[in-house]
From TrEMBL:
<feature type="region of interest" description="Disordered">
    <location>
        <begin position="658"/>
        <end position="759"/>
    </location>
</feature>
<keyword id="KW-0597">Phosphoprotein</keyword>
<keyword id="KW-0446">Lipid-binding</keyword>
<dbReference type="Pfam" id="PF01237">
    <property type="entry name" value="Oxysterol_BP"/>
</dbReference>
<feature type="compositionally biased region" description="Basic and acidic residues">
    <location>
        <begin position="666"/>
        <end position="707"/>
    </location>
</feature>
<dbReference type="InterPro" id="IPR018494">
    <property type="entry name" value="Oxysterol-bd_CS"/>
</dbReference>
<keyword id="KW-0175">Coiled coil</keyword>
<dbReference type="InterPro" id="IPR000648">
    <property type="entry name" value="Oxysterol-bd"/>
</dbReference>
<dbReference type="GO" id="GO:0005886">
    <property type="term" value="C:plasma membrane"/>
</dbReference>
<dbReference type="GO" id="GO:0006869">
    <property type="term" value="P:lipid transport"/>
</dbReference>
<keyword id="KW-0472">Membrane</keyword>
<dbReference type="GO" id="GO:0097038">
    <property type="term" value="C:perinuclear endoplasmic reticulum"/>
</dbReference>
<dbReference type="InterPro" id="IPR001849">
    <property type="entry name" value="PH_domain"/>
</dbReference>
<feature type="domain" description="PH">
    <location>
        <begin position="12"/>
        <end position="105"/>
    </location>
</feature>
<feature type="region of interest" description="Disordered">
    <location>
        <begin position="259"/>
        <end position="289"/>
    </location>
</feature>
<feature type="region of interest" description="Disordered">
    <location>
        <begin position="301"/>
        <end position="328"/>
    </location>
</feature>
<dbReference type="GO" id="GO:0032934">
    <property type="term" value="F:sterol binding"/>
</dbReference>
């Protein structure tokens, strides 16, 4: 579940990535693309701007790098330029700090070399220490030997050139002699010069062979020494990074931990985590370690657990559990989760799995005249205003509910868990994952018609089957039921309440969600948080989730309290942050969850808890010692071109795909929804208006039938039967109360009133 660590950046690398940069108090932190290259840190709004528009550059040679908290740091070059930056996590911040420090050191060194370029400097820099002196003398001796060999090669080259020229002249003279007594002398002279040339050539060959052998031998030794130096440098960099993390943890522990007692031999574990209170201002800067409280922010703090917990053997686990006040199942979480989630592979499917579609027609760019809509709304009730499909996305609310099952694997893993506390972590992650599809989805789903259904059959691919139905039209309410072959079932009854505040719209889901696991009979329930759509009137629409969720295990009494932090321009927290604590029925905390609802969730096991110092309002905070956090859920990437397909996920793209054998009331058969998906929005608007008017006529007809049934002769027969009954009362003799009850109990979606005598 832990993500793989990328290699530590080296001084010569170009380092790139996303960081949050502080802009102003109106916009707060904004996401920017940063590029570190050649001692310069530059940033752009997007990666596409790298080729033409740079928003700012700072020279690291004269810059000062300061760490503010676990995710934030500041880069300044003396006041002219100051960047307040924030990384997505502490590890990511440390990678940037390491890369920036290496780049700064290289930039300072290059600047110093440039300034001293006119000075004489030794060929080999002096090294300190006895080992360094021996190595320096060895290198100097090797260099002198190789220099001597090179001089020998140069001398041999000069002799070859000299004797070769003399031999060439002698051969020329020999060709010019026709005959005579000088022939013998010339032949002897040519023979002597040829012998000298051969001797000189042999000397040249031997010198080349000696030089090559010497170079090869020392080349292997120097390559080995260079590799050793590189390995030592990498180890030193990793050690420096670990020291920096430990230093950061100690700083945080010192800030809040007068919070930590000097000895953990007698920890105060009996305190519950339900104490509320706001933390100090310094604690608000720590994004990864200072989590939101059960009721108010900064109620508890997490610090790394003592290393002794990591070194304990299996035989000492029971002692650890008794020391920390946790049960054996919770302590053995790592071993149990590995054993429980690694089962034998499923048998191969006998039938080929259907290939689902991966694209839908691109969203057309239609012009929308808001005035033409508003002038038609004058004098009409808000519930009867026909809204065009321009504000919609081509799926219904029933299909949107079925999207909650996109990360069904979390429930599959939870079904395999032996520990209820471990199972609670997976269920809590599943509740958060259902919001990940909403971050870019500003379109409104189609309102289902009364009696509309949606069946999602994924038994062959995923092992589950889901069914939704619209059971009420006013107020709108839907029922959803899903069952899995992996041993879990999910049901929810959802209705919506909304409040329009002018600039934003708040949508409050009412109703609860129930999840039951067959193997353990654990029954979980929770409710949804408030969804807020901002910039309704002016600006770009964006969505936020805020509120609190209590996931309760009704069999064991375990509870997980999740808090969705609302977005704020002035907050220095990571946007869309979610935190939570898993407690047992006695209120003892066992796990801490943290992350964001649009990206990922992590959890860490609590090894120790204690009461810390009082906050600004005099309320105590709890300090948790935790093991290293592990990733429990991560959002799946969107398909290619999702921005042109309503930002649908891979599952959402398949929800409206036509299928054979579905019910006539299935959402896939809605004509207006199908026309909108095909890009025929004008026809979709006309069809949507026709269906809505037809539904209003049907509703009025049901109301008339209800009134008619209330005054039908059958009602009189019913009253006679009541009068003949031995259980008749004085009030029933008047024949009026039965009619009054009938009028009050009939609703627009209920059947005609059942005679009282049938009860």
């Amino acid at each position: 579940m832990s993500e793989s660590k990328p290699p530590t950046p080296t001084p010569g690398d170009t380092y790139k990535g996303w960081l949050f940069k502080w802009t102003n108090y109106i916009k707060g932190y904004q996401r920017r693309w940063f590029v570190l290259s050649n001692g310069l840190l530059s940033y752009y709004r997007t990666q596409a701007e790298m080729g033409h528009t740079c928003r700012g550059t700072i020279n690291l040679a004269t810059a000062n790098i300061a760490v503010e908290d676990s995710c934030s740091f500041v880069i300044s070059n003396g006041g002219a330029q100051t960047y307040h930056l924030k990384a997505s996590s502490e590890v990511e911040r440390q990678r940037w700090i390491t890369a920036l420090e290496l780049a700064k050191a290289k930039a300072v060194r290059m600047q110093a070399e440039s300034d001293d370029s006119g000075d004489d400097c030794p060929s080999v820099p002096p090294t300190s220490g006895q080992g360094g002196g021996c190595r320096n003398s060895e290198v100097q001796s090797t260099l002198r030997t190789m220099t001597s060999k090179v001089e020998d090669l140069s001398t041999c080259n000069d002799l070859i050139v000299k004797h070769g020229s003399a031999l060439q002249r002698s051969l020329s003279e020999l060709e010019g002699i026709r005959g005579g007594g000088d022939m013998g002398d010339k032949i002897r002279q040519v023979t002597e010069r040829a012998t000298l040339f051969r001797i000189t050539s042999n000397a040249m060959i031997n010198a080349c062979r000696d030089f090559l052998s010497l170079a090869q031998n020392h080349n292997k030794r120097w390559q080995k020494a260079l590799q050793t130096e590189r390995d030592q440098r990498i180890r030193l960099e990793e050690t420096l990074e670990q020291l920096a993390k430990q230093h950061n943890h100690l700083e945080r522990a010192f800030r809040g931990a007068t919070v930590l007692p000097p000895s953990f031999s007698n920890p105060a574990l009996g305190n519950k985590t339900g104490v509320s209170g706001k933390g100090d201002a310094s604690d608000e800067d720590d994004d990864n370690e200072f989590f939101d409280a059960m009721e108010d922010p900064a109620e508890f703090i997490t610090v790394p657990a003592d290393p002794k917990y990591h070194r304990r053997s299996g035989s000492n686990v029971s002692g650890l559990s008794s020391e920390t006040g946790m049960d054996d199942q919770s302590v053995n979480f790592d071993e149990q989760s590995l054993a429980s989630n690694l089962e034998s592979p499923q048998p191969l499917e006998l039938e080929p799995v259907r290939q689902r579609r991966t694209r839908i027609p691109d969203k057309p760019n239609y012009y929308l005249n808001l005035w033409s809509i508003m002038k038609n709304c004058i004098g009409k009730e808000l519930s009867k205003i026909p809204m065009p499909v321009n504000f919609n996305e081509p799926i219904s609310m029933l299909q949107r509910l079925s999207e909650d099952l996109e990360y069904y694997e979390l429930l599959d893993k939870a079904a395999k868990c032996q520990s209820s506390l471990e199972q609670m972590c997976y269920v809590a992650a599943f509740t958060v994952s259902s919001y990940s599809t909403t971050v870019h989805r500003t379109g409104k789903p189609f309102n289902p018609l009364l009696g509309e259904t949606f069946e999602l059959d994924r038994q062959k691919e995923c092992g589950y089957r889901s069914l939704c139905e619209q059971v009420s039209h006013h107020p709108p309410a839907a029922a959803h039921h899903a069952m899995s072959e992996k041993g879990w079932s999910l049901r929810q009854e959802i209705t919506l309440a909304s409040k329009f505040r002018g600039k934003y719209l708040s949508i409050m889901p009412l109703g609860s969600i129930q999840c039951i696991f067959e193997k353990t009979n654990n029954h979980y329930s929770w409710k949804k948080v408030t969804t807020t759509v901002h910039n309704i009137i002016v600006g770009k629409l964006w969505i936020d989730q805020s509120g609190e969720i209590d996931v309760v295990n009704h069999r064991t009494g375990d509870r997980c309290h999740l808090k969705f932090a609302p977005y704020s321009y002035f907050s220095r927290d990571v946007p869309r942050k979610v935190t939570g604590v898993v407690t047992d029925q006695e209120g003892k905390a066992h796990y801490v969850l943290s992350g964001t609802w649009d990206e990922k969730m992590e959890f860490s096991r609590i090894m120790q808890s204690s009461k810390g110092e009082n906050g600004t309002e005099g309320k105590q905070r709890t300090v948790y010692q935790t093991l290293k956090a592990k990733e429990i859920w991560r959002k799946n990437p969107l398909p290619d071109g999702a921005e042109n397909m309503y930002y649908f996920s891979s599952l959402a793209l398949t929800l409206n795909e036509p299928e054979e054998g579905v019910a006539p009331t299935d959402s896939r058969r809605r004509p207006d929804q199908r026309l909108m998906e095909d890009g025929r929005w004008d026809e979709a608007n006309a069809e949507k208006q026709r269906l809505e008017e037809k539904q209003r006529i049907a509703r009025r007809e049901r109301e008339r039938e209800a009134v008619k049934a209330a005054s039908s002769p059958e009602e009189a027969v019913t009253e006679d039967s009541i009068n003949d009954s031995p259980f008749k009362t004085d009030a029933q003799e008047t024949g009026t109360e039965a009619t009054e009850v009938s009028d009050e109990t009939d609703t627009e979606d209920s059947p005609p009133h059942t005679p009282v005598a049938c009860k």
